[in-house]
Write a structure and sequence with these properties.
The chain is of the alpha/beta class and 338 residues long. It is built from ten helices and 16 strands. Keywords: Isomerase, Pyridoxal phosphate.
Length: 338
């Protein structure tokens, strides 16, 4: 799809959390550029595939500037002082560091304001060992502002304005992330936008406008498996004096359930691994969540057709954020199954 639209794209690999087994597999598939927001992951990528172009997709912190120059070929930036530090370090390491300037389009995360664009670029163009290779934007990452054709046209116009003002070619207009894919499928991405950064849709096949799986893609590339460590019939309603649990949640009593019993299964994972139970969806649709603590997850298995027992494995699909938590957990074993 990107090839047909003359668009370059790079996979965003932060979800793999530096896992060498997974990274090695992805890197062999052929992407020339790879993106990540964690410097440690870029170090691993450069170790596995030194020739790959690495893009650090958030403004760098001052303390990591030397390693940004070592391990990131390109970085996203919004502060002149940061680019000045990058310039100084690039001179010291005798490298040319490329930057993409992020522009605010309404989601109010990173990005310089449009009215500051010309003055900002004028100062950056004067810095040694810095090459401005693109402009970019992020939407739907903080405030939930969705992309539109008008916003992407605005981004393209910024690029044209800079080129006309300074007589310098801006190679890339990095229009955004997975949330932009549905617009591309509908032909609503202007031709000036020529670069995408794709993570969630690549790994989960999701259309983020409709919240459903794109045709011919898969939503089960990542699966979480966990073993049942207890299964017991218990009262449906807790008993005793009650306060908020360690997560700050207060259990609401449904008086109609007094005296009823519930078959509960406890799994060998918890919030330390999954962050939120809302990020998981059991493959068995008859299972439902009761709750979770730091190390255990409790399911209602009362109405299931399958006779679950201790030692059985329950399988879950995950959202992008759910998989991020699982991949970042040192307590979860990761396997690559071909």
């Amino acid at each position: 799809m990107f090839r047909e639209n003359n668009i370059e794209w790079a996979p965003v690999l932060k979800m793999l959390c530096g896992n060498e087994k997974y990274l090695d597999y992805i890197l062999t598939l052929g992407p020339e550029q790879v993106c990540d927001a964690r410097l440690g992951n870029l170090k691993t990528i450069k170790k596995l595939a030194p020739h790959k172009e690495t893009i650090y997709i958030k403004p760098p912190a001052k303390k990591i500037i030397p390693d940004i120059i070592r391990f990131a070929d390109v970085s996203f930036n919004t502060e002149y002082i940061t680019i000045k530090w990058l310039s100084k370090e690039a001179v010291k390491q005798d490298k040319i560091h490329r930057v993409i300037i992020m522009i605010e389009l309404g989601d109010l995360r990173e990005g310089i304001m449009g009215e500051d664009l010309i003055d900002f670029y004028q100062k950056v163009f004067e810095l040694p060992n810095i090459e401005v290779v693109g402009i970019g934007s992020n939407l739907n990452c903080l405030s939930g502002v969705m992309p539109s054709k008008d916003k992407l046209i605005q981004l393209s116009l910024y690029e044209q304005l800079i080129e006309a003002k300074f007589g310098k070619k801006i190679i890339g207009v990095s229009g955004g992330s997975s949330v932009m894919v549905p617009l591309l499928m509908k032909g609503l991405v202007p031709k000036g936008v020529n670069h995408f950064r794709i993570g969630e849709t690549l790994f989960f096949g999701v259309d983020l406008f409709e919240n459903e799986t794109i045709e011919n893609m898969k939503d089960d590339v990542f699966l979480l498996h966990s073993e049942i460590i207890e299964i017991t019939e218990k009262p449906a309603i807790p008993y005793g004096e009650m306060e908020a649990n360690p997560s700050g949640e207060t259990f609401e009593i449904d008086e109609s359930e007094f005296g009823t019993l519930q078959k509960r299964a406890i799994l060998d994972i918890g919030l330390l691994d999954i962050t939120k139970i809302e990020f998981l969806k059991a493959v068995d649709p008859e299972l439902s969540f009761i709750g979770a603590s730091s190390d255990m997850l409790v399911l209602n298995v009362t109405d299931t057709q399958k006779e679950y027992k201790v030692g059985d494995v329950v399988t879950f699909k995950m959202t992008y954020m759910g998989a991020l938590g699982v991949m970042n957990s040192n307590y979860i074993e990761k396997r690559l199954i071909d």
